[in-house]
Amino acid sequence: MKHCKVFLKPKKEESLLRFHPWVFSGAIQSFEGQPEEGDLVEVYGANNRYLGIGHFQIGSIAVRILSFQQQEIDQAFWENRIRIAYELRKTLRLTASEHNNTYRLVHGEGDNLPGLVIDMYAHTAVMQAHSVGMHLARHQIAEALKQILGDTLQNIYYKSEATLPYKANLGSEDGYLLGGDVEDIALENGLRFCVDWQKGQKTGFFVDQRENRSLLEHYAKDRAVLNMFCYTGGFSFYAMRGGAKVVHSVDSSAKAIALTNKNVSLNFPGDPRHQAFAEDAFKYLEHMGSNYDLIILDPPAFAKHKDVLRNALQGYRKLNAIAFEKIKPGGILFTFSCSQVVNKEHFRLAVFSAAAQSGRSVRILHQLTQPADHPVNIYHPEGEYLKGLVLYVE
User: Fold this and answer.
1) How many CB atoms lie within 10 A of CB 6?
2) Span 75-188: which CATH code?
3) What is the C-alpha to C-alpha distance for residues 268 and 237, in angstroms, rounded to an integer?
4) Mapped to the 3 state alphabet, what secondary structure does 255-307 carry?
5) Which CATH class, in words, describes the domain spanning 206-393?
6) φ/ψ of residue 257, rounded to 5
7) 194 noted as active-site residue
8) What pTM value is reported for the model?
9) Which of 71, 128, 288, 384 has the highest CB neighbour number within 10 Å of its CB?
10) Active-site residue among 4, 194, 230, 338?
């Protein structure tokens, strides 16, 4: 199969020689052929040196490299990559646990499949494409999933309407590539929850907080817990199992609150300790009293790209400042950022500034990140998107 070729400007190949999987549009000198968005292209550096093959796209990231070797991107390629990803999850003991059937099977660049995310919920794979190339390969990927997972896979739901570049005009529709409507109750560390992969955010649940929710459970005993930006209530029902005396869940979305209530009653039917409120986070924090001694701040990404980094850091500072001001003495704060453009240093500085503003004595107990089924490719440090701190506030 013949592919278009991309030639880089002088000295722009260094990052690819270090196996970074992105080619930026500014690094491209010329094309041989006219690639369309989603096409496979071969990338060459100085003296016609072959650097890799990947998906072409329009935007600042022009090519996402699939392989640094000369190879066909065929059915065998997809099966091999998904097999490697699945073997890693087996190593992590996530694939056959009686207490857990929820995990991320493919994490984009972290699994050398840039632009592709696949989350597993029991017998259902939810697949999300973030590039046109991955969208065009979706049926091959679904076939590879069937080959690798065998009978344990009964449904594949494709959910990319919201993640594909809108300018590509693909007319992509979410829907089942295999199977159909199924039981949407999944299991995480022995707790049950509903996954709305059809209308929910991301793939329906935030799988990346599994281990951090587990940690929270150990701190919840006899505490009054506030779960801000609760979405499906993940942290709330872990807090309840951990013995919290009261748990309040807050989200601006009434749909999220309905899902939280559903999840809490799945695990703790009729438990009077839990209440949920559909309200703006900043408003709720402003008017709440000093009633809580365990607060979780897990906001959606404040910054999607570098241009809004400054505003995002101000948002994190403001949010944490209110929490520091209101939390009871001896309180514990779990605070997170899931913005890829906000690095660990940025986030710590924002939280540090908020702590200094409050004038309270604050200590770091844990520095948190994403779990091992969201691996970071060592050549692509940008993949470390989830940052968290657990703080003790005197």
Assistant:
1) 26
2) 3.30.750.80
3) 8
4) HHHHHHHHHHHHHCCCCCCEEEEECCHHHHHHHCCCCCCEEEECCCCCCCCHH
5) alpha beta
6) -65, -40
7) no
8) 0.93
9) 128
10) 338
